[in-house]
Every structure is written in C-alpha cells, then in structure tokens.
Write a structure and sequence with these properties.
heterodimer, A: mainly alpha, two-stranded antiparallel ribbon, 25 helices, 3% strand, globular, B: alpha/beta, 10-stranded mixed sheet, 10 strands, 45% helix
Chain lengths: 580, 376
Amino acid sequence: MNKQGSNQHAVGLRQENGQWNFFGYSPLVIILAAILIVLILPAVIYLFQASFHETNFDGSFGDFTIRYYIELVTGERFLNNCLNALIYALGSAIVAISIGVTLAWIVERTNTPFRHWVLILSIVSLGIPSVLYTISFLMLLGKAGPVNQLLMVLLGANEPILNVYSLWGMVIVEGIEFAPLSFLLLSSVFRSTDASFEEASMMSGANILQTFRNITFRLAMPGILALVILIFIRAFESFETPALVGLPGGVSVLTTDIYESIEEMPANYGQAGAFSIMLLLIVGVLLYFYNQLSRKAERFQTITGKGFRPRELDLGQWRWLTFSILVLLFFVIIGFPLGIVFWVSMVPYFDGISLNALQLFTFDNYRTIARAGSLQDSLGNTIALGVAAATLVAPFTALCAWLAVRRHKGAWILDQFATAPLIFPAIVMGMAFLQLILNLPFGLYGTLLSIILASMVRYLPYGMRYSYAGILQIHTELEEASAMSGARQSTTFIRIVMPLVAPAMLTCWLFVFLVSVKAVSIPILLAGPKSQVVAITLFDMWENGITNELAALGMSWTAFMTAISIVFYWLAKRYGLTLR
Amino acid sequence: MTYRILAKRAASALGFTALLFSVHVQAADSILTYKGSDRTAKLVAGAKKEKKLTVYSALTVNQALRPLTEGFKKKYPFVETEFWRGSSRQIAKKVNAEIRANSLVADVLEGSGLSQIMVKARGVVKFTTPLTEGIDKKFLDPNDQWIPSRFSYFGTAYNTKIIPTGTQPKTYDDLLNPKWKGKIAWRIGSETGALLFITNVRQILGDKKAEVFFQKLSAQGLINFRGSARTLVNRVVQGEYPLAIQIFAHHPVISAKKGAPVATQMMEPVVSVNGTIMLPKGVKNPHTALLFVDYYLSKEGQEVLKKARYFPVAAGVKPRKELAPLVPALSGVKENFVSPATLFANRKASTAVFNKYFKSGKTVTVKSKKKKKKKE
C-alpha cells in the first residue's frame, strides 16, 4: 500500500516494479472504467437521442424535435398514468408491508409452532418467474376462476363479482408478490431490536398488542419506512403486473406506456424515449430519498455492546391463532397460486375448478412441452442467459469492489458507474439497449448476446452489493503480504482475494442468475425468434391463449428454479450475506 | 447450441455479414422474378445449398403454422425449417429492426395487415411465382411485392351460456344497447382488430354518422384486449368476456364443434380482408423462401389451410362445408372487402378515432370516462 502512495505523484507513463502507472492510476482501474463506460454510456446516449428525434417508418431517427416532451407535459395521459403508478406502487407497498410485518413479527418474536418453515415462502418465490406468478393470480381471480366461482355461489349472483383486471387487482397481485421480500428484510429489522425495551413495557403492565404497537413497531419504523420506499420503487418500475393485469383493464402506468409506444405501428421510439427519461428521473429522485432514509435508520440502532438476545414472546393459547395466520398467508402467497397452475397444467382446458374436471386429469400438457423443440431452445437460451450474465457480473463486480474498497486512486468511479444502472428500470434499460443495437452496424439485434449485455449492465449494482459485503470482511494483511512478496496487483487479486471472496461471489452469481432468468422487461424488447427465453415464452403463451401448456411449462420451470434457489439460500446463510 | 449461435453472432459483428449480404442480394434478385421453365429445379438446387428457412407468420401455431412448416419439411427434408408466430405488427416491427440492424433472420413473412406496412417501410422485395395463376387477379398486387395468402371474415363471438342464442346482438346498432355495457371486448394492438372495425364502420356510415356511432359505442365501456384473436375467443368461451366483436368468424365455429359454449354472429355488411405473404428485403435464403411460397399456394399447402379452417385463396381449394355460411359470397350476405391498400389508407384516420374514444389509460375506470364524455 505504501508503494502505491509514493507513486501517486508520478507524472506520465512509467513502469515501476513491473507495474504500469498512468498518471498514478492503476491500469486495472482504467481498463475497468473504460469497460463500464463502453457498456453504459452509448445506450444512454441513444436513449436520449431517441427521445429528441421523430421516428421514421422503419424505426430510424427522423428530424430533431422536442414535441414528445411537450406532449408529456401538456397531455393528460402522462399525469394520469403517473397517478395510476402512484396508487399502484403505494398500494402494493402497503399490502406487501402489512403481510411482511405480520409474518416477520410472528416468526422472529413469538413462539408460534412451525414458524421457521416460513422461509420456504422466500425460497420458492425467488424461483417463480414473475410472469407466471401474475398469471396464476389472473387464473385465481379471473372471471372463470375459483374465487369468483365461490363468491357467486355464496352471494347467489349469476355474474362474476370481482374484476381482477383493474387497479386494485394490480395492487393485490404485486403486493402479494413482494410479500416474501418484505418479510425477509423485516425479519432482520425485528431480529436486531433489543428486547429489553419490550421486556420493560411488559413489566410495566402493557399487554402483547400494546407492546407491539408502542415498542416493537415504533422501533422498527425507520426500517419499515425504508422498505416502503424500496417496494414502492420496485413496483413503480415493474412491468409484468401492469402489462398482464392493467392493460387489459385499461389501466396504464409509465412502464406499460413505454412498451405500448414501442408496440405501436410504426414503433414510436420517440415517445417511448421520452417516457423512459421521465421514469429515469422519477426513480432517481425516489432512490435518493431511499438512501437518505436508510442512513437515518441507523440512528435507531439498538444493538449495543451489551449482551443481547431478541426474546420470543410466549403467546400461550394465542399461538394457535398466529399459527392459523401463518397457514393462511402461506396458502395465499404460495399454496393457491401454485395450486391453480398445477390444476391448469393437468387439464386439457380450463373452465373453473370442478370435480368433473378431475376425471380429465392428464399429463398431455407436460408431454407436449417436452416434445416442442422451440421450448427446448428457449430453455437452453434462458440458462445460457443466466449463466453468462452471472459469470460476467460476479468476477467483474468483485474486482471493482475490491479496488474501490482498497481505495485505489480513481476506483471510486468504478463504484459509481457500476451502481448507476440502479436508477434504470429494467424496461428503460431494454429500451436504451434496443436503440443502441438498432443503430449499430453489426447484427446484434435479436441475439442472445444483446440480452446478456443489457442484463449484465442492469444487474451490476446487485453484484456490487454482494461483492462489497464480501470484500469488506477481508483484512488487508494477506494482500499486503502478497504485495511484499513481489506479486503484481492482478496476481494478488487472483491468488489471494478471489479465493477469499469466492463464497460471496458464488452467492452473487446465483442471485444474478435467478433474477436475470426471471426478468421479462429486457428480453421482451430485445429477444428475436431465435433468442426466446422462458419468461417471454410464458408471456407469449398467455397472450396467445395456450394456457394449459403454459401452466405445465411454468410448473416444471418453477421446480427447477426452486432447486437453485435452495442452494442460494443455503450459501447465503452459511456465509452470512444479506439477502436482498 | 447456443454458444455456437453466439460465436456466429460475434463473427457477424466483425463485419462478415456485410460481405455475405451483398453477395446474397445480387444472387437473389435474379431468382426472385425468374420465370424460366427450370425455375423449380433451380429453386431446389439453391435450397439444397441454403438448407435453412425461417417463417414469421400470424397464423395459429397448432392448427396451421406447424402443419405447414412440417409439410414443407417433409417435401424438402434437407431444409431446416423454423417459424415464429407473432401479430402482424410484431412481425413488421421485428423485421424492420432486423433489416436496420443488419441481422435479418426471417425469410418469409405472412400476416393480414402486414403488406402495406412493409411496403411503406421499404422492407420487402419483388418476387413472382407461377402459382398466382390460380388467384383472382383483383386480389393481386400490381407491384408484385406481396401475394394474397388467405381470406378472413369477421363477426361477433358470444358465449351461449351467458347470452342464449336468439338474444345476441345481430347488427352493429344492436351493440349500442345499454344491456351490453361493459360486456364487449375487442382486440387492440392489431391491424385487423379495433382499427379494422372502425374503418369498416366509417366506410359503411360515412365519417359523420360514424362519429356519432363511436361516441355511443365508447359509452359502452369496451374492453381493450391485447392478445391474439384466438385468445380472445377462448376468453369468451371461459366467460371472461360475454361478447367479442371483430373476431375471425371461424374461430367460434371451431370451438363450438368441440362443445364449447360459443357462437358467431355475422353482422351485415360482413367485413373481410386478405392476408398476404411476402419476402423481406435482403432475404438470406431466397430459393428456399420461394419454394415455401410455392408450397403454400399449392393444392397441398392450401389443403392444410383448409383443414385448419382458414379460407384458402388459390389452387381452386374451397373452404370447408361448415364454414361456407360465413363466406358472404356463398351465403348471399353483403360484404365489405377491405383491400390491403384501403386498410392502410384508413389506418391514420381510424387510429385517430381509436385514440379519441377508446384508448386506454386516459381514465382509471370506465365510469369516469363516460362522465367526461358526457360533459364534452
């Protein structure tokens, strides 16, 4: 490290101890920064370009214009959709947090039987593609679905009661989808609260509910608020639920506006660009507030130097009530959605749940998907996409994080660049790369490579988070010893740092793999007929009405991904990494 | 498999494609309009070298697209045949992007409402085949940039469990009856869905009267459905939507035959269009593509279409018996045939009507939308 310091004033290009220096910057930093710039900047520039140009009939740029922005500001559509997005995102956050708080409190602070099995929720939900999850709720709550069937019988109505294709439908579906995440993050909040406050409250004569309201909940408040914003942002930039639930019901939000503008004929890339830029700005502002709030949350830290252990409340007979709540939520979050998908996958056509349909049970749908060659291609593509994106992100971010954590000159810029894509909602990233690729002279369009690149950039920030956490755990002594023995920077990284952060990298690898194969927003804009991935295949199957085969494919895929998800959780737990 | 594709793409990124591309185009031009008697022999010889074919089509996968490509593969086993099903708009968007990004995958394009978009975007090439002789001249393109591929007749699908036969709306005006409020769905994001419906009504009533009609229709709270026409009919079968207008008239007939509670009501004058088949600019496998077009228009190909309950265009193949009542020319019902050119010429005005009265996202609920309209 000292060597590094003395070199800082070096001017110009020179070689010292076999290590190149460019104005004091390590060549590694320069190369990595260059890669990041090449990956991110052109796409962003083309996104801006698109929003400032008319779109020709063949999709190329026309004359310069600012009309898309003027239309946004003057038209009622943009404001209206912002309002829809606001209600939708806030509603989803409230639903998710309500379920999350309930689950987390029951699991972390009570002696409810079987409470630790709730982790299954998080594991399975990480394995289900969001498209499938949303579709399962459309099957459940649709007009022909069991919920409406039941309501019609109960209320004696001859028409379906609920219309899921609406704003409240979007809120419910998205809220429940985010419930496991919210549970997971809130668990750590509840776990890290000093129980002595609660004990004091109980000693003073407060009952369980009062204690929860006045002590537990209040101490967790900053954590909950930060989570509200996090889920708000995630819902605000989400695409699957608005596209599948909102659009058929005439409810648009910003992300579906981008998609619809691109789907128009001829594609309205200008409008899509303007929408994207606006979305980018909004998410940027939201993330700023989120960071502010998470920082403030530290002030509420209650774990101090003194010994502490969160206490479990003895609920007595009430524990069977909390147990029933757990069971109910388990069914709502995983049981019913997967149950209906399984049912649909077993019948030749779906027209509601009935005993008669049981006689029609068949494995034909599974046989059909096993035979269809296009599906096998899409499976292959999906795995290639996940493996490639994860394999690119994990070591790359490990290297960036290492340089940044060890404060190499200029390495802060790597951190900044690699975290920047966080403000890009996936659909905007897809749009930006679409514009870039359409304007490149070589044939990247419709290739798997284009999806891999865009996904890699999109998930760099997640990779950074894992790598940072991993690198921070390693003391510099070993690296210094390596440097003293004459190893180059790259040798030190490969021989010393890599093996030490391997667990963190592996967890990071699995996480990027899981999220990139789940995603719809990027491949839906970039995939060609030969680079279809499972999530898009499911989306297309739904739009083309091939529901039963969709269910069969969805079941098989979920089983496979859940297996990977289990490995991920085991690793993350083993090496004490945060699960975001 | 995938890595091989990746490697290939990387190679193309180095600029090899550009080279191959120009060679292909030169070779292609001559064969595309070749009329000699050894045409088929030349095509087969060329196809043996090309060995590959990718078809983009809006035909249904299970009934038509798969049997057609499988039939073609049986006839020419040396060709690796692939297809991709998308709406006409998706096809147009993809192909134009492919052409622009210099990574053309498609060899043959098929869809209704597709041809004029592709012509306008200069994304297609001239080509000829002797098999057009079996097609009525009035349906042919004078510029040889596309060939009619099928006829489509449109009607209204209704769920017979919810709306017993006899009580269904029978005319366009019946659709304005308040009892259908919130029950009518139609397809958006398609050239032959809401847009064609609007064009049809505008042609029948004239723009002025049509405007009044649309105003009333928008008060019915139409459900904008995104997805294929087949899916929409499936939703009608499931009871998700009781009524769907502007659907392919034969879809409910097929489902009803399997026992599904659905039927078609034809509304006079019946609107009809023809689908088109064409080759993209810079087509990579021109010989194989032409062979496929020939196969498609041959008796064999048209029989596949007929079996899939589409309405064939060529080789003297008549539609299936149970579908004859849907064909205005056979049932004596008035018809409004909208040619690809007419369809395209009306697209802007009809889109404007759609955006004015039916576009989603303006208001959150159907109710408040209606109130606003009344105030206006």
